[in-house]
Design brief:
- It contains 18 helices and 16 strands.
- It is α/β, with parallel strands linked by helices.
- The protein has 3 domains: about 5-130, Fumarate Reductase Iron-sulfur Protein, Chain B, domain 2, CATH 1.10.1060; about 150-240 and about 410-475, 3-Layer(bba) Sandwich (FAD/NAD(P)-binding domain), CATH 3.50.50.60; about 245-410, FAD/NAD(P)-binding domain (3-Layer(bba) Sandwich).
- A hairpin with a 2-residue loop joins strand 11 and strand 12 (about 390).
- Helix 9 (about 155-165) packs parallel to helix 18 and helix 14 (about 295-310) packs parallel to helix 15.
C-alpha cells in the first residue's frame, strides 16, 4: 500500500490547526478548513505494505475502516475512489475525522519504530472533499419493507442505526429529547472541535434520504414505550451514558460547582440560539476555573472557559502524569497510554503561559461563603502503589475558585426510560443486551451505544449502531 519506500522518505506531518492566538477569539472550528493535498498524498505514501494491517483490526479501528486501501488511493490521487472505500464502513467520517482519538494510529505498524501514518487527517480530508465536490448525494431506497422502527436518541449510535435501517428499506423515525438532533455530537462536543454546521449537514442529508427526525420529545416521560410499540414494529434505545459521575464531598451544593456536560450544553445552546447574546450565569468570564478530571470532556471545558474569558484555569487529574513513551506494560498495538497535549492544553499554554494540568490531586471539599457561593476548594496529593490510593500527609492545599467543572466521566444511562420499558440492567446500570445481539429483555426492544456498553468513543457508537441495525433487520424479516 502507498509507496513502497514512502515510510523511509517522508516524515509524519499533521494538518495544521488555526493559530491559537486567533482561534481562542471565536468558536469556529480549530481546523484550518484547507488541506495540503501534496502533504496528504505523502502521508498516504507512508502507509506500508505491512501484511497484517493492525490499523483496521480489533486493536485499531472499531468499524474496520479499509485504511490501507484509502491511504493508497489518496497517494495515487484517486480521491473519489477513496471516498467510496471509506463510506463502506463508516457512516460519518466527518465526525470521526474530527473527534476520534484515532486508535487506528495507535496500532499502525509503522508506529513500532516511527511516528504513525496520519490516518485521521486523511479520513477527514476525504469526506470533506467529498462534500465539497458534490460526490455525496442522497440515496433512494427502491424496495420498502413496510416495517417501522423508532430510535430513541440521536447521538452517533442512533444516527448510524437509522442510516443502516433506512438503507435496508425500513421506515425510520428518530426521537430526540433536546431541541436539536445530534445528541452528544450537538451539545456534548463544543463547536470549535465539531462544527454544528457539520452535524446539521449530515442530519439534513439523512432527512433527504427519507429518515424522520422528531425533536423535543422525551420518550419515557412525554410518551411511553408502550404507546410507541403500538405504532412501531421495533424500538432501538441509543440514549447514551448521560448519568455523570459526581463528587460527593463537603459543600458539593456550593453555587458554582457544575457537571461538565451541563456547562458545555448551556454554552453551545447559547451560541446556536443567540450567538451568546443571552449571556448565561454559567460562564467562566472573569473567574478562577478548576476543571476536575481529564479526558476529552475536560479539555473541552478548558477550551470553552478560555473563550469565555476565564481569569485562570487549572485542571486536576487524580492519576500520575503519563510517560512520554510507551511503558513496557503498554506494548504496541495497544492504545499508547502516553502524555499528550490536546487543543485545550495548547491554548492554555499560550493564554496563561503554562499547561493547566496538575496530577495526583484529590479534592477533599469545597468552600462556600455565607451566601452559599463557591469561593474555594481543598486538595491533597495522592500516590498509587500496588493498586492502592494513598493520601500524602502535609500536602493539603487550598485553591481560590468561583467555578468548578466536574469532568470525571459517566456511570450509566439515566433510568427513567428503562423503568418505563421494564428492561433489565446489567451490574453497571447499563441497558442489558449482549454485544452482537443488542436484544434487551423485552421482545422488540433493542439497544446500542454507550447506554449498552458504557461510556466510550464515537467510533464505537457507530460500530454498535451498525450492528444493532443488522439485528433489528433480522428480527423483522
Amino acid at each position: 500500500m502507498g509507496k513502497v519506500t514512502g515510510f523511509k522518505e517522508f516524515d509524519r506531518k499533521t494538518q495544521d490547526y488555526r493559530r491559537v492566538e486567533l482561534r481562542v477569539k471565536d468558536y469556529g472550528e480549530i481546523f484550518t478548513g484547507t488541506y495540503d493535498q501534496v502533504q496528504l498524498q505523502n502521508q498516504g505514501a507512508r502507509c506500508m505494505d505491512c501484511g497484517v494491517p493492525f490499523c483496521q483490526s480489533d486493536d485499531g479501528c472499531p468499524i474496520n475502516n479499509l485504511i490501507p486501501e484509502f491511504n493508497d488511493l489518496v497517494y495515487n490521487d484517486k480521491w473519489q475512489e477513496a471516498l467510496t472505500r471509506l463510506l463502506k464502513t463508516n457512516n460519518f467520517p466527518e465526525f470521526t475525522g474530527r473527534v476520534c482519538p484515532a486508535p487506528c494510529e495507535g496500532s499502525c505498524v509503522l508506529g513500532l519504530n516511527n511516528p504513525a501514518v496520519t490516518i485521521k487527517n486523511i479520513e477527514q480530508a476525504i469526506i470533506d472533499k467529498g462534500f465539497e465536490q458534490g460526490w455525496i448525494k442522497p440515496y433512494t431506497v427502491e424496495h420498502k419493507t413496510g416495517k417501522k422502527i423508532a430510535i430513541i436518541g440521536s447521538g452517533p449510535a442512533g444516527l448510524a442505526a437509522a442510516d443502516e435501517l433506512n438503507k435496508l428499506g425500513h421506515s425510520v423515525s428518530v426521537f430526540e429529547r433536546n431541541d436539536r438532533i445530534g445528541g452528544l455530537l450537538m451539545y456534548g462536543i463544543p463547536n470549535m472541535k465539531l462544527g454544528k454546521d457539520v452535524v446539521d449537514r449530515r442530519v439534513n442529508f439523512m432527512q433527504d434520504c427519507g429518515i424522520e427526525f422528531i425533536t423535543s420529545v422525551d420518550v419515557g416521560k412525554d410518551i411511553s414505550t408502550a404507546d410507541l410499540q403500538k405504532d412501531f414494529d421495533a424500538l432501538v434505545f441509543t440514549t447514551g451514558a448521560s448519568e455523570a459521575r459526581d463528587l460527593p464531598v463537603d459543600n458539593r451544593d456550593a453555587q458554582g460547582v457544575h457537571l461538565a456536560m451541563e456547562y458545555l450544553t448551556i454554552n453551545t445552546k447559547s451560541l446556536l440560539d443567540t450567538g451568546h447574546a443571552d449571556e448565561s450565569d454559567l460562564s467562566a468570564k472573569g473567574k478562577d476555573v478548576i476543571v476536575i478530571g481529564g479526558g476529552d470532556t475536560g479539555t473541552d471545558c478548558i477550551g470553552t472557559a478560555i473563550r469565555q474569558g476565564a481569569k485562570s484555569i487549572v485542571n486536576f487529574e487524580l492519576m500520575a502524569q503519563p510517560p512520554v513513551d510507551r511503558a513496557d506494560s503498554n506494548p504496541w498495538p495497544l492504545w499508547p497510554l502516553i502524555y499528550r497535549v490536546d487543543y485545550g492544553h495548547a491554548e492554555a499554554q499560550v493564554v496563561f503561559g503554562k499547561d493547566p494540568r496538575n496530577y495526583q490531586l484529590m479534592t477533599q471539599s469545597f468552600t462556600k461563603d455565607s451566601a452559599g457561593k463557591l469561593i474555594g476548594l481543598n486538595t491533597i496529593n495522592v500516590e498509587f502503589a500496588q493498586g492502592q490510593l494513598t493520601q500524602i500527609p502535609g500536602t493539603e492545599k487550598t485553591w481560590d475558585t468561583q467555578l468548578v467543572l466536574l469532568s470525571m466521566g459517566f456511570v450509566s444511562p439515566e433510568h427513567y426510560l428503562s423503568d418505563d420499558a421494564k428492561i433489565d440492567l446489567d451490574d453497571r446500570g447499563n441497558y442489558q443486551a449482549d454485544y452482537g445481539q443488542y436484544q434487551t429483555s423485552q421482545p422488540g426492544i433493542f439497544t446500542a451505544g454507550d447506554c449498552r456498553r458504557g461510556q466510550s468513543l464515537v467510533v464505537w457508537a457507530i460500530n454498535e449502531g451498525r450492528g444493532v441495525a443488522q439485528r433489528v433487520n433480522e428480527y423483522l424479516a
